[in-house]
Amino acid sequence: MTPGWVQTAGELAELVRALTAVPEVAVDTEGDSLHHYPARLALVQLGAPGAVWLVDPLAVEDLGPLGAIFGDARTTTVLHAGDNDLVDLKRRHGLPFARIFDTSVAARFLGAPALGLDVLLTTYLGVDLPPSRQKDDWSERPLSEAQRRYAVGDVEHLLPLKARLVEELTRVGRLAWVEEECAALAAQVVVERPIDPAAYAGLKGARELAPRGLAILRELHERRETLARRLDRPPFKVFNDEVLVKLALAVPGDREHLAQLPGMSPRVIGRWGDELLATVARALALPESELPVLERRPRANVPAAVRRRIESLRVWRTEATPRFGLEPGVLFPNRLIGTVAEAGPRDLDALARVEGFRRWRVEAFGPEILAALART
To answer: Can you list the domains of the chain with their CATH numbers?
Structure first.
């Protein structure tokens, strides 16, 4: 299928008019997070019966007009594993979504053993997708013919796939379950992620460092962020986390010492060695009062009654998982088990008020949950 290109505000307005009140629109996005920093949304693919459009957000910066499509209650936006797509479209462009159908969520509720779009299309439609281009730099223009085929393939079959999944969900009586989960996705608010000044503390091995080593790691982490923005490269392509921690452990004082460390090739040392050494030296010069100290996370003091409820609910889930043919995390995720155990509901109305406990769960196995709680 030959896609239409949307690269001007006028073309976007024309597309919005064409898709107004269309019952279903397929959506996918491509980003450039493997190649640039900060990452950008590099392509938006839209599909309707018999047509596909490629919207270039690098040329049309204001995607706000698409809100007239996605926010229209008459239109269902169909995605596959759309969490990241929704984050980009909601957070970066403020787009609302009235109705969503996620084919990955649908497949989970059918107990599909594999959830990749390629597998689902082969299974339900006998369609093979073009080879993956997920690692490409989607900000490069023009797109290659292979990229165009891949971009089109990600949306042109989503609507027929949705139709087949709806058939199967209706047959097994779980369509309402998926619709409720997708409604929650549509309503989920995505806020701007704040910069975490203590992000360095989350690196593997950080908590084993002494305060001075932590200070070195903190300074190196900040330096990597600065370099990543200067070079327009993802931080992990500047230095990976393991290299930062090893530098903090080794406390190199000269280039010879740097050369003994993993990841410190002659090219890396020649390009950034002086900056790294200066960063380490700056951390070494900090007074004791400015050294970071990580708070030890106290273990949650879970009351004995709540622990008994959690155990009872897990026992129930182990028994129920094969009966429902769903993964444990789909049927009754651990976070929800903890929430229900803390709430200790005694009737269905109270269970339905537990945050995150969807109506479909109340109807499908609410009485069993209450019975499991009553046994504690």
So the answer is: 4-187 (3.30.420.10), 199-290 (1.10.150.80), 304-374 (1.10.150.80)
